[in-house]
Amino acid sequence: MKRLLKYLPNIVYIFLMLLSIEIGYRIMMGQMNIQMPDLLKEKPEKLYTVSSIDPIKVGKKLTDTVIYTFEATDIDNWVFFDFSRGSVIPGVTNQSAPESWDLAFSRANIASNWGDKSKKGQVSVAKLGTTDFDSLTQVPEDSKFIKNISPPPVPDSNNANLEKWYKYSFWDHYLKSHKNVFIIKTAEGNYAKMQVINFYCKKEEKRISSCYTMQYVYQGNGSKSFVKDASESRG
């Protein structure tokens, strides 16, 4: 009993410290309007499997809505995607053939093509204030396109419109897309609308990160419309 009484002040001190931390935390959470996440709601409802790599030219037509999944897990090697061929492109190095890709991905980073020295192949990106992918039928006239700041020696996510495409959960280090709709003016000068659905996919029945699923519509005829005309509908 005497030993317990000896350490009682320390026990009381520790208890009061923990209590003050808890109270301060609750006050901070209230002032900052932060809520603990509902992790079941934060996780994507559907995990897609990795799509095939099959770069085939779309031509001068409008695609249907395409859902495409690919891995970008390697921090040292970027993955390059081309809307005009609807696929990631194998064998593309950091600076070669700038006209052959539109966006590059590495972990949570997304970069737009900066083009060559003459700016050929340069891609620009507009981030829209909507998450309603299906209702967007054409490129808005007030779209604010941004290009990469400068051509870096390796891909870099220095396009401001691509930097904050996700929100991050401190509690479990989980990334979730804001699901903004992006307009991509591609290396060929055509337009695509794109939305990142999630950052996780299913592989061998396991959930893996740095695995993008995005949906997009690509317009290959140079127009700003994402609606098929009568001839395309019949075709």
Task: Please describe what this structure looks like.
By secondary structure, the chain is α+β, with helices and mostly antiparallel strands. The chain folds into 2 domains: 34 residues; 195 residues, no CATH class. It is 18% helix and 28% strand. It has a 6-stranded antiparallel sheet with strand order 1-12-11-10-6-7. The chain has a 4-stranded antiparallel sheet with strand order 3-2-4-5, with no helix packed on it. Strands 8-9 form a two-stranded antiparallel sheet. A hairpin with a 2-residue loop joins strand 11 and strand 12.
Task: Produce a short descriptive summary.
This protein is an alpha+beta fold and 235 residues long. The protein has 2 domains: 34 residues; 195 residues, no CATH class. 18% of the residues lie in helices and 28% in strands.
Please name the defining characteristics of this protein.
four-stranded antiparallel sheet, 18% helix, single chain, 235 residues
